Structures are given as structure tokens and as C-alpha cells.
Amino acid sequence: MGGKFSINLRIVQPTRLILDPSLLLAFKRRQMNDLVKFESFIRVPEIFFDMIGITRYGEARDTWKARLKQAFFWSSYANTIFCLIIEHIYFIKAAGNFTNFLELTALAPCIGFTALSIVKIMTIKLNEAKLNGILDRLSDLFPRSHLDQDRYRTYNYNLESQMVMKSFSILYMILIWIFNLLPLVSMLVNYISTGILEKELPYFMWYWYDWHKAGYYEITFFHQNWGAFDSAVFNLSTDLLFCAIILLICLQFDILAYRLRHAKGDYKELEQCVKLHQSVVELSNQLEGIFSPSILVNFVGSSVIICLVGFQATSNISAFDLFKFILFLISSLVQVFLLCYYGNKLIEASSQIGYCAFEGTWYMADLRYQKSLLFVMTRAGQWQKLTAMKFSVVSLASYSAILSTSFSYFTLLKTIYEPSQK
């Protein structure tokens, strides 16, 4: 009987591993020593921070390399502001003539995109110390053992983070380089069909010199590409870091929910849960204090940008312009959706705490534990949420409101434009 029991055990155990994908995944990760690192959640935004000269999390700030990066950042920032200024000058001159309404509505989204990028990156730059403090605390709370990472589904969080960030980054980079390089394609097509080389620039900007001349054109083309790339990276890196921090906070709420559900009447464990809850709530409040002004600017600006880009995409424009404005529209919709989705995710993660506390075996604990748990459940009833300066909650409902507002602006613009065109 002993030998037979031993044989059956060897047969059944691998079969259970094969039938349960989560156990199989955990087993493979242990075999490969595949621990999820905290840094992997912020790796993608930090790659873009490197591109624009912002010091990475945990990197020394008193070295010559850090000083060179600072100089590069401020030069990029100054160039972006310069691009915004000459875009405004061009817009004012064109608006004074009012000869081409489509040209004005094509320029306005680019101005809004650039202005929004400047606001966002200054949010990061002015709050570097606070953001590093938030990341330090989240790093201290991060689960680092195989057992904890399997228990709290850390690998799933990391997988979502990598998929979303890489997909969004690819979309944004395709957008900006199509805007930057499409004039070269248009010039080539025109040259092949007509034999005449007509120089084009990616964006409408005012210059005090004739940029058509040899040498001037190349410098101007590079200047516009540099400014546009910086604007895209300013927007992209800020949004990705914002989403990464929210995801890490949601992970901590899930850890708290799991621990409350399995506390089993242990008062010391409940005390640790209360401290964790206080820390996560404080981190969430700090995050809102940092990003709330830029979120308000983002929501207001995005409503106008989506409206104008949609207007361009539905107007009588060339195939090249139609393609790039449709891509611009998709990117704008995805960008706002990403912020609202993760804001909604934070609300959902914090709202589960009270329910998970109730799901535990509190009825088997003493009266002291039950009274303390009641206070936890009462506090957990106040869900954590991010706001746009208290005007709007960052959630999927806000996304619906932004789309509704954009469509209202779009309808009004089409109503005004089409009769005047006739």
C-alpha cells in the first residue's frame, strides 16, 4: 500500500499543475527566478525621461552627467516654448486675415498640444522631490518575495503595466513621426508627379526669414522636428508616470484587501493593515495634489483638441492630412481615456476595502477586534479619487463627459463653418 500511494502521488501532482494555469505559471516563474522588480513599473516613462534630460528615479544628481542632462532638458524646454510662441504669432497673423479657416483649425490643435506638454512637464519638474518621495514609499511597500508576488498578483499588474505603456508609447511615436516626416513624403510625391520640388514644413510657424532657401530649410525642418518630438515626449512621459504610480497604489489597495480578508481576528495584523491603509491614502492624496492642476488643463484642452481634430478629419482635406489627423484624433482619445481609466481603477481599488474587511472571519474574533474593524470599514467608505482641481473626478464618467463636450463643440463648429462655406 505504501508503494502504491507513493506512485499515485507522483502521477496526480503534475496533473494538477498542468490543469491549473496559475499554479503552472507560478511554478515556472520560481524555476526561472523571475521576480518582478519595482523598477519595471516605471522603466518605460524613465526611458523617455532620459530622452529629454530628466534625472531617473534613484539616479545621482550631483554628477557631471546629471548636470549635462539638466542643461539638455532646459534647452529642449526653451525650444518648445519658442515653438509655441511662433505658432501663436502665425495663428494671430492668419486670424487677422481670416483667409483660410481650415488652416486655423489645423494649427489650433498643435498649439494646444504644445501648451499642454509644457504644463505637464513642468508638473514633473517642479515636483521631482515629492514624486521621488512617493516612489520611495511605494518601493518600501512593494512585495519582493515569490510568495507575496504570487499571492498579490504582482506579475499580472506588471504585465498590464508593460502592455499599456508600450502600446501607448508606440502609438504616440508613430503619431509624432508621421506629423514630422509626412511633408518629405508629400514633397517626393509632388516632385515625381510634377517635376517641381516645393518645400514643405511639418507645422505652421512664423519665421522672420525665408526658410525656403538652401540651408535655412534644413535648419528650420530640424528645429520643428525637435520641438514636436519634445512636446510628444513631455506629454507621454508625464502620463505614463502618472498611470504607473496609480497602478502601484492600486496594488497596495489589493494587498490591503487580501490581508483584511485573511486577518482571522489577529489584532496585530489589523493594526498593520490600518497603518498600510493610512500610508496608501496619504500617497493618493499627495498624487492628487501634484497632478490636479495639470489634469484640469488636460481635460479642458483635450475637449477643444478632440473637437478641432475631428473637424479637420471630416473636412475637405488631402489624403495625407486626413491620415495624420485621424491618427491625431485616435491618440488624443486614447490619451484621455488612459488617464480616466486609471483614475477609475483607483476608485474601484479603494472601494473594495470595506467589503473585504467584512468578508473576513471577524465574527470569530473578540469584541476589541470587531470594534476596531468597524472603524476601518467606516474610513474605507470614503473612496480615494483623483480630481481636476475639484471640478471633476478622474473616472470613466469624466471621459464620457469630455467626449460629449467635444461633440457639442464639433457640432457647433460644423454648423458655423458649412453655411459660411456655401
Provide an overview of this structure.
It comes from Aedes aegypti. Its main location: membrane. Keywords: Membrane, Olfaction, Receptor, Sensory transduction, Transducer, Transmembrane, Transmembrane helix. The protein has 422 residues and is an all-alpha fold. The chain has one domain. Helix content is 79%, strand content 0%. It has 13 helices and no strands. It is elongated. The N and C termini lie far apart (94 Å).
Helices and strands in order, then pairings?
Elements: H1 2-19, H2 21-32, H3 43-52, H4 64-97, H5 101-126, H6 128-141, H7 146-151, H8 154-194, H9 216-261, H10 267-313, H11 319-359, H12 367-380, H13 396-421
Summary?
This protein is mostly helical and 422 residues long. Helices cover 79% and strands 0% of the residues. It has helices at 2-19, 21-32, 43-52, 64-97, 101-126, 128-141, 146-151, 154-194, 216-261, 267-313, 319-359, 367-380, 396-421.
